[in-house]
Amino acid sequence: MQILLITNDDGIHSSGLMALKQAVEGLGRIIVIAPDRDNSAVSHSLTMDRPLKVTEIHHDTYMVNGTPTDCVALGIKKILNSKPALLLSGINAGANLGDDISYSGTVSAAIEGTMYSIPSMAISATGDPPYDFHGAGKAARMIAEKILENGLPDNTLVNMNVPPRHKQNRIKITRQGRRLWKDSIHETRDPRGWTHYWIGGGTPIHDSNRDTDVHAVREDFISITPLQLDLTNHTGVDFLKKHWDLKSVLD
Amino acid sequence: MQILLITNDDGIHSSGLMALKQAVEGLGRIIVIAPDRDNSAVSHSLTMDRPLKVTEIHHDTYMVNGTPTDCVALGIKKILNSKPALLLSGINAGANLGDDISYSGTVSAAIEGTMYSIPSMAISATGDPPYDFHGAGKAARMIAEKILENGLPDNTLVNMNVPPRHKQNRIKITRQGRRLWKDSIHETRDPRGWTHYWIGGGTPIHDSNRDTDVHAVREDFISITPLQLDLTNHTGVDFLKKHWDLKSVLD
Amino acid sequence: MQILLITNDDGIHSSGLMALKQAVEGLGRIIVIAPDRDNSAVSHSLTMDRPLKVTEIHHDTYMVNGTPTDCVALGIKKILNSKPALLLSGINAGANLGDDISYSGTVSAAIEGTMYSIPSMAISATGDPPYDFHGAGKAARMIAEKILENGLPDNTLVNMNVPPRHKQNRIKITRQGRRLWKDSIHETRDPRGWTHYWIGGGTPIHDSNRDTDVHAVREDFISITPLQLDLTNHTGVDFLKKHWDLKSVLD
Amino acid sequence: MQILLITNDDGIHSSGLMALKQAVEGLGRIIVIAPDRDNSAVSHSLTMDRPLKVTEIHHDTYMVNGTPTDCVALGIKKILNSKPALLLSGINAGANLGDDISYSGTVSAAIEGTMYSIPSMAISATGDPPYDFHGAGKAARMIAEKILENGLPDNTLVNMNVPPRHKQNRIKITRQGRRLWKDSIHETRDPRGWTHYWIGGGTPIHDSNRDTDVHAVREDFISITPLQLDLTNHTGVDFLKKHWDLKSVLD
User: Which residues belong to any copy of the Survival protein SurE-like phosphatase/nucleotidase domain (chains A, B, C, D) (predicted)?
Assistant: First the structure.
């Protein structure tokens, strides 16, 4: 039977993970390998300064004292005997859109899976708590089936964001937009009176381009963005070759 | 006077940071904002579960108990009064090439700077310890001057890797290659006899394509790769629109 | 109704905590305030470099992202409206005997309670996994009732260790013995080949004095040791006054 | 030549450690083994969930990525070839008096040394920054010489607190007093508006008994308190035997 590997960044006890597991029941043997606690905003962190412990807490459910990326790497190289047919990461409690994708542990787990040539998808429930994990789970299953049937382009993962009020399964294939945050660093004081800075909160400045993930979700569409591993700016390669007179530098 | 912001992921006490600071002396007012300790492989992590403390340990030298990305965000939004003309991240002790770029705290700091529209470059000294930070610093200064003169394409950063034996400043503009690791998870036992897994080490499987960063460095070239913020696989957008029959899903 | 405050160092999800809660049911209103994860060997650590979050996960059950000592301090000063009649810490998975008491988060929570003049007891199930939490819970209830009836001497806590095969509730009031560890530091290597040291394991060198906690437990007795807050060696005060010629130092 | 082992809890880069090292120069071969960063309020914590790395950063100067207690245990069991004649922990930036002794990493390092039968002393500079480490160092040397000459009672360590304005080396042998803190938990909010609690600050409620460490320091005396490993309340043993009718429990 084909294996579906599930992980997340909110930790193994989170309800988004449970919802995802239930939603894809029947599509294969489901194996969960997830962090022992919240790993939000850890991005693509790998734990290299200490060893990691894998604990099988239930049948086919493994807890790791590390990051989502650690979970995927250990899962593929040490825990699973065969390559999963699909990696699902989520369901994240909150959106992963625009620039924020880069910080996301949820998306990074899917990047890690893609590096090992496993079709991978990150799923996030947008909006505010309580999140509609049930609705997001249903949508995730639909797309999971699509991926299992049709595959994904090489070195490409899917980033899916499901808004709470998506009517009639309206779906848009989008590109990653921009989303910067205003007033997202708060000042606080410790008991000795020293200033500290707490990152978070603030107001998002949304990208208004109609083909972006950010815009789709604001219009209550499910957003599906294909992301790639290659970070190269290929037109930039030509630009630098042409405009930087490296010859003169070299002499 | 224009400001050069310097950060890194090896921590504020690392010799690669010192070497970079010395190498660019005279190009502007140099302000260092760096983590208080080693943050290797933290990727683009943001610290959101606790507040951060900024300590000015010398004039224009700030230490932050957080990640490289925290340093850049705090620097731009809270510490600096005006926008830096250039952000330099490094000099990293070891290469940041191919797939490994994605885990790198050094490169992620330059990504963060680029999000704030600051021309940004990550610099790594490849090879083994002791690293040639002096040689890498000289090369970094050369390219820093190029960027200050000519700018960079929008939403684009530079990832620079300097090998120890680069002869006559041989430079190549490259694309990000692939670099996977074989046998990169070691098993060890804790004193109670439980197995733990330690990520790291192993043998790299190099990309042999001649236009890649991985290949350039193996041939003793300095590699300069323009990277972009946009992770979208744009041809993938069309692929999904065409091949996934989302209409049928929706009805 | 009188309040019983329960905490531990193995974390809020541990089965020893559950067992303790069940064992004392009916003795009062039971309020649990415990760390979100394993805090073994944290001793009397206070978290002062970051703020702490208190989450009410069920009615009268609070999770804190800190140490056992943090839990007690926050509980008494911020969460509870009135002073508990009793603080119970445990049931620890493993013994807290002899010199090891000093490292114990379980015992330290009871020390913290005693500082606030709350009658406090630490309970540990000795032996190896699976621990007999049920038996230890029964014994704990018995002694909890004694403390609620008779109180404890000022500035004094109770450290209770319950062996798995204690027959007929055999109990001994003991003093803290010595227990050092042989070969308790193991060497391991990280993936780069560097040596690291892992503390733990080893062979205990037991105190053979018959009135000690260490000895009682080896003989399958339940051990109850009254501990005090005062660390002063009072005979040492006289010794130093007499033998150190401080006058000569001062002139 | 006899070995003096120096450690602390403020970290290997702290100026209190440097001052202590300079102050005892000439008394033996000085070996420093100290934590890589601030470990204030870690108490007697042992690191058991991950291995520890020892780095020799200069001749006879070792940095450990662990607690003060880890440093002493590794030093004695793995780094040093022979038993030190004296262990000195400090100079701590701030007092370690009364109840606060129990939280102190500085004092705990001296407790650990005493467990290995090494004469051990913790030294703290009281008052506010900038601390008078020079004055405290001079006093520490004086007492270190006393200990090297006369030894210490078995299982007994010295806790020394040096106030900034101690005139004419006025010294008192004291007992551990009480020192509780009022208003020592501050509330702060994270960027999402959740309340967090920050332990620290507040106003100490001093013990006014004339023979205590707390009182001595308030009167500008150097305080020297002999502390012991044994936590047993020996009169409590008799109390419990007499007043708890354990016979009835047992039947």
Answer: 5-182
